[in-house]
Design goal:
about 400 residues; alpha/beta; 7-stranded antiparallel sheet; 6-stranded parallel sheet; 20 strands
Length: about 400
């Protein structure tokens, strides 16, 4: 079995073994994953949701209300609920009433975007130490919020060059399963932060754990992390996923609209690693929607210096391409990685390349929004139909 196929098989097996994950397969066999038994619904369509529950044989007393959602939404759980059927039922009735918003949806499962393609052919592999940019005296720091895995303390990533404020934002147990460190996404945040620090002397990553060591999170986890984004002008999201009927995720849409409609803030998001050419991968795919804040989302594909990587997702919603193949960065000190550096691939690692370029462009551009436009507009190469950075 080829290493990349082995990686894919392990991760699919991991997800299949999670009792709280359900999947619905499209006609082409590609899956949408979401939390079992949970529906996210707009308050004003909750009466319709109750009707949808009744059609499946549930009574009002069966509804369990979960918290941790923004005002205006409900998060409900009914053991045994056909979530996709209920969501579609609410959407159809909402649209019939003239509401074109996505009125209901699952609590989608998102993954870090080294998820199925890491290293040249599979898991991260050891690399000679690279270099990080030197901090310059008097250089104004730009905070970049990185919502990712926990950060590893035992790493060549300098502790004074990033922020991680809570104990939960750190990891310590390398041997996460029988495959050891290369079977999961341990060190993913360290790697992303290292790319940021290698590319820009002014970046200070704020690393916040929302993704587990296997690279998995829920939509509600991502939304909870984004509640901390008010103080940051650049948000690095090296993660994403597919959604029911390819519609925008319910909660994520509302939260990003609140963050990006006003203020000076941009989201840089990964295109995904499944080689899809016509399927939106969220949140990057917001860049291709009609949302008034779509230009504040930068959707990043990966290239290898000559062409778009065959495994990188593409589509009309891609904003820019950046290096994402055999990237070298800080990783985890481990017997298999004696120097603590690794080589890894994925749209995960093209994202911080672009985020760092935006940070460097901010002083001259005057804002994060204008800096993002300058970076994309000034891309110095073309990789097929996509503008790209070297």
């Amino acid at each position: 079995m080829a290493p990349a196929e082995g990686w894919r098989t392990r991760r699919a097996r991991r997800l299949a073994g999670l009792p709280w994950v359900r999947r619905e397969d499209r006609a082409d066999g590609s899956p949408v994953r979401f939390v079992a038994d949970e529906l996210l619904v707009l308050d004003e369509h909750f009466a319709t949701a109750r009707q949808a529950f009744a059609e499946q044989g549930f009574a009002v007393r069966d509804i369990i209300e979960e918290g941790d959602v923004p005002s205006g939404f409900r998060r409900v759980r009914l053991p045994g609920l056909d979530v996709a059927r209920a969501a579609r039922r609410v959407r159809v009735q909402a649209e019939a009433a003239g509401d074109n918003r996505v009125a209901a949806g699952p609590n989608h499962v998102f993954v870090s975007t080294s998820f199925e393609h890491a290293g040249a052919y599979g898991a991260p592999c050891p690399a000679p130490p690279g270099t990080l940019s030197a901090r310059r005296d008097g250089t104004e720091e730009v905070g970049v919020l990185v919502l990712d895995t926990g950060v590893w303390l035992n790493s060549p990533l300098p502790k004074d060059r990033y922020a991680a404020e809570e104990q939960r934002d750190f990891e310590s147990d390398v041997d996460i399963d029988e495959g050891g460190i290369t079977a999961g996404d341990a060190g993913h945040a360290n790697f992303v932060a290292g790319v940021l620090l290698a590319r820009s002397p002014r970046v200070q990553p704020r690393l916040m754990k929302i993704v587990d060591t296997f690279g998995v999170c829920r939509e509600t986890d991502l939304v909870a992390g984004l509640r901390h984004a008010e103080d940051y002008r650049i948000i690095n999201l090296s993660l994403g996923g597919y959604t029911l009927d390819d519609r925008p995720p319910v909660l994520l849409t509302a939260v990003l609209a609140g963050l990006l409609t006003s203020g000076d803030r941009v989201v840089v998001a990964a295109a995904g690693n499944d080689g899809q050419h016509d399927r939106p991968f969220w949140p990057a795919a917001y860049a291709g929607t009609s949302a008034p804040w779509r230009r504040r989302v930068v959707a990043v594909a990966a290239h290898d210096g000559r062409r778009i990587a065959e495994w990188s997702n593409t589509g009309t919603w891609i904003t820019v391409a950046a290096p994402g193949v055999n990237v070298t960065s800080t990783f985890v000190n481990h017997e298999r990685f004696p120097d603590g550096w690794a080589r890894w691939s994925g749209t995960s690692f093209a994202v911080p390349y672009v985020a760092a370029a935006i940070a460097d462009a901010m002083p001259e551009a005057g804002s994060a929004r204008l800096a993002a436009e300058a970076v994309v507009g000034g891309a110095n190469r073309r990789f097929g139909r996509y503008a790209g950075l070297d």
